[in-house]
Automatic annotation (TrEMBL):
Pfam families: FAA_hydrolase. This is 2-keto-4-pentenoate hydratase/2-oxohepta-3-ene-1,7-dioic acid hydratase (Catechol pathway). PANTHER family: FUMARYLACETOACETATE HYDROLASE DOMAIN-CONTAINING PROTEIN 2A, FUMARYLACETOACETATE HYDROLASE DOMAIN-CONTAINING PROTEIN 2A-RELATED. GO terms for molecular function: isomerase activity; metal ion binding. Belongs to the FAH family.
Length: 294
């Protein structure tokens, strides 16, 4: 099943794909989950209820995906845990020795945007870089999760573009600021439930394009720490909860490592596509002029 978070009547709402159509579940019938967390909590019963509703959805609930306003798949995750240096070729191009333990850092919900929303180049920097990735959305609470059972904790997967402001990323040993500018984390367009994909989303082609030119291309098999390993290792220290997001890392080809360097600028369009999961498209826009806080 493929689900998206959209704006409906000025409010976030859950939608589900029926072929090429997007069905606004708020208009498809009573008793349907209102958001991704409710869908996850509802388990198999929620999925069955949605499947039935899709078959009989009235015309008023049918949307053209090209005209829908997408929000981040999980609008405000409890935790967004990102993994750096998780493709050996990216570690090499970045000048880092490949770590033997995942390089983990956090993102905040205020950095997230949806499919088709603009990635924002901040006024403080012209070094906004792309990072195409897959994101695993947690569906079951877990602590000290064995690797053999880790994939049971995944609700589904989505595409992520982890826009990074490189000069701010490297102002200090911790990467937090450069990874958390507002409007730099594109997340969507849809959550694809884990049953529709290979276990751990393995063997999928990840491609990033800037203005139509391919700048990253890799297989998810190239991850140093696969999804099951990440869940098991992270849960040794951090309790994972439904709706938490693990952003699994980017392959080689990032702009900061190129000669000459290639950063995103206003007017550009960045696309991240993952086989079987979807196509995430975002134009690049300049941050609005600063205004005094009210």
């Amino acid at each position: 099943m493929r689900l998206a978070t959209i704006l409906s009547g000025g409010k976030p709402a859950l939608a589900a794909y029926r072929g090429a159509d997007l069905i606004d579940l708020a208009k498809a019938g009573p008793g349907l989950p209102g958001d991704i967390l409710a869908f996850i909590a509802g388990g198999d019963a929620a999925r069955a209820t949605i499947a039935k509703a899709l078959d009989v959805a009235p015309p008023s609930a049918v949307l053209d995906p090209e005209r829908a306003t997408f929000l981040p798949v999980v609008p405000r995750p409890g935790k967004i845990i990102c993994v750096g240096l998780n493709y050996a070729d990216h570690s090499a191009e970045s000048g880092f020795k490949q770590p033997d333990y995942p390089t983990l850092f956090g993102r905040f919900a205020t950095s997230l945007i949806g499919h088709k929303a603009p990635l924002i180049r901040p006024n403080l920097s012209d070094q906004l870089d792309y990072e195409g990735e897959i994101a695993a959305v947690i569906g079951r609470r877990g602590k000290h999760v064995p690797k053999a059972k880790a994939l049971d904790h995944v609700a589904g997967y989505a595409v992520f573009n982890e826009g990074s402001v490189r000069d701010y990323q490297f102002k200090a040993p911790q990467w937090t600021v450069g990874k958390n500018f507002d409007g730099t984390g594109a997340f969507g367009p849809a959550l694809v439930t884990a049953d529709e994909l290979p276990p751990g989303a393995r063997g999928l082609r990840l491609t990033t394009r800037l203005n139509g030119e391919t700048v990253q291309s890799a297989s998810t098999d190239d991850m140093v720490f696969d999804v099951a390993s990440l869940i098991s290792i992270i849960s040794e220290a951090i309790t994972l909860e439904p709706g938490d997001v693990i952003v699994t890392g980017t392959p080689a080809g990032v702009g900061v490592a190129r000669k000459p360097q290639l950063f995103m600028k206003p007017g550009d369009v960045c696309e991240v596509e993952v086989e079987g999961i979807g196509l995430l498209v975002n134009p690049i826009a300049q941050e609005a002029a600063e205004r005094a806080a009210a």
